[in-house]
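Hi R.,

As promised on Friday, here is the backbone we talked about, encoded as structure tokens. Could you run it through your design pipeline when you get a chance and send me back a sequence?
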């Protein structure tokens, strides 16, 4: 079964990042709203950050007969907004800090008809199975590599710091990018910072 996801709003970086994350998961595809009458959208994540108070995008999406579920997808993820968002046909409140695996779990739960808040906020536990932390997604070496990337080190410097070969560094970067859904070094830095991945993880592990 393929779950068709159609992003409403968001810039090109967000769109491409979401598409990459869905591709790594399998079982999802980024649908086109132009074709939704022929191929309905299963879940429409909507970026609401920065939109005016009288914006009707959410209500119009909920009312669209060719969109089955609607979820908010935003960096502005905090408890004060959840109750204002959920209900009235909106099925999810999703933070952009979610990893690919976390996002996949949340989207599948929404597809099954559950109301989902992810990552969980006080008083609003996420539906479905427990969402893994980044420690469950990346190996220690992959986390160490991302942590060093976040400090601005080059691949050569990372190899020296970790006392491994340059090829090993590249291998860790490829596997970490695949698991987190990032596509560039700048995205990797943002992911590492937002998930608290530090360069000293080996000392703490």
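Update: got your reply. Pasting your designed sequence below so it's all in one thread:
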């Amino acid at each position: 079964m393929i779950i068709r996801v159609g992003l409403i709003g968001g810039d090109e970086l967000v769109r491409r990042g979401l598409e990459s994350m869905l591709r790594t998961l399998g079982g999802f595809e980024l649908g086109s709203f132009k074709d939704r009458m022929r191929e309905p959208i299963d879940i429409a994540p909507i970026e609401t950050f920065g939109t005016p108070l009288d914006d009707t995008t959410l209500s119009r999406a909920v009312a669209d007969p060719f969109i089955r579920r609607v979820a908010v997808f935003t960096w502005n993820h905090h408890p004060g907004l959840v109750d204002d968002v959920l209900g009235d046909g909106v099925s999810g409140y999703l933070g952009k800090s979610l990893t690919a695996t976390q996002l996949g779990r949340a989207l599948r739960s929404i597809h099954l008809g559950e109301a989902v808040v992810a990552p969980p906020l006080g008083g609003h536990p996420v539906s479905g199975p427990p969402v893994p932390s980044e420690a469950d997604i990346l190996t220690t070496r992959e986390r160490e590599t991302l942590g060093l990337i976040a400090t601005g080190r080059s691949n050569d410097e990372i190899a020296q710091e970790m006392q491994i070969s340059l090829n090993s560094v590249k291998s860790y970067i490829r596997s970490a990018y695949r698991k987190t859904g990032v596509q560039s070094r700048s995205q990797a830095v943002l992911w590492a910072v937002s998930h608290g991945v530090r360069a000293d993880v080996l000392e703490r592990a």
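One thing I noticed while checking it: The domain at 3-118 is CATH 3.40.50.2300 (Rossmann fold).

Thanks again,
M.
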